[in-house]
Design goal:
Elements: H1 5-16, H2 22-25, H3 29-38, E1 46-50, H4 56-63, E2 67-72, H5 75-87, E3 92-96, E4 109-115, H6 124-133, E5 135-146, H7 151-162, H8 178-185, E6 189-203, H9 206-216, H10 218-224, H11 229-246, E7 254-267
Parallel strand pairs: 1-2, 1-4, 2-3, 4-5
Antiparallel strand pairs: 5-7, 6-7
Helix pairs in contact: 1-10, 3-4, 7-11, 9-10, 9-11
Length: 269
């Protein structure tokens, strides 16, 4: 099957440029801090954050005095990343670019990372190839990706029930499985650590979780704008239902763990 990845990426970009994704993404900062620690970023390392969004991992690397660069195709997210860097007095470079065709020379970075970002590139193999290409031999690759069986994986399944993904595009949560990483990277990367971790979503209520994602998570915001009032009510309840399913709080709030795979590897020469 021939898949028009360029059209898919244009539609994805429009989704991410809808809403205000950093209102969600900023809450995930701890994932980036843990990943940057896991790949042992050192002062002076050249670190690239791929599909950086508002720059969580790039900022985390810069806090450790690395030479940090973030790349993303959504200009509005890059703008907020630059604002965050200025506010925190961190020297981070943000560049517009496609994860499947990174605007950098071969072997440009000592470490390449992505936190729940590169997993959304529609052509998984091209994105993986680019991660390897721009990493120096012996350099590190660090990924944090939602798993198929976790809370976010279930949320994506729920959304797919309302808006099926394009034919021929593999689910992004495959990146959260060791088997898929092996398929994508082969013997070019030695995975030295594969840990399943939980990020804990914390909201006032399941309804608050649903509202927050419908207002700010671009692809969901865009979908919500296409629904009738009755369907929007049902969709809102479906999202709240995901939070209820994983919630472990008993006081009305949401304390819901969502599994992700933290993968650390070394590029072989």
């Amino acid at each position: 099957m021939s898949v028009d990845f360029e059209t898919i990426k244009n539609n994805q970009r429009a989704g991410w440029e809808t809403g205000d994704y950093p209102r969600v993404g900023n809450t995930l900062q701890i994932i980036a801090e843990l990943l940057v620690e896991a790949i042992d970023v050192r002062a002076g390392d050249r670190v690239l954050d791929v599909a950086c969004g508002q720059g969580n991992a790039a900022l985390a690397a810069a806090r450790r005095f690395a030479e940090a660069t973030g790349v993303d195709y959504a200009a509005n997210l890059l703008a907020q990343g630059r604002e965050r860097a200025v506010a925190e007095h961190l020297p981070v470079t943000f560049e517009e670019g496609d994860a499947e065709k990174l605007p950098f020379d071969d072997e440009s970075f000592d470490a390449v990372v992505s936190t729940v970002g590169v997993m959304f590139a529609p052509d998984h193999q091209k994105a993986a190839d680019e991660l390897v290409r721009v990493t120096v031999p012996g350099g590190r690759i660090g990924l944090a990706c939602w798993t198929p069986g976790g809370m976010v994986g279930q949320m994506f399944k729920t959304v797919s029930g309302w808006a099926p993904p394009p034919a021929g595009v593999r689910p992004p949560t495959l990146w959260g499985t060791p088997e898929h990483l092996t398929e994508l990277f082969g013997d070019r990367v030695e995975w030295t650590a594969l840990h399943r971790r939980d990020y804990v979503f914390r909201y006032h209520s399941p309804e608050h979780f649903s509202e927050w994602f419908r207002r700010f998570y671009g692809p969901i915001t865009r979908l919500s704008g296409t629904l009738s009032e009755a369907d929007l009510d049902r969709f809102a309840d479906d999202l709240a239902g995901v939070a209820r399913q994983y919630n472990r709080a008993d006081d009305g709030t949401v304390v819901a763990p969502s599994e992700y795979l933290e993968a650390v590897g070394v590029r072989r020469a």
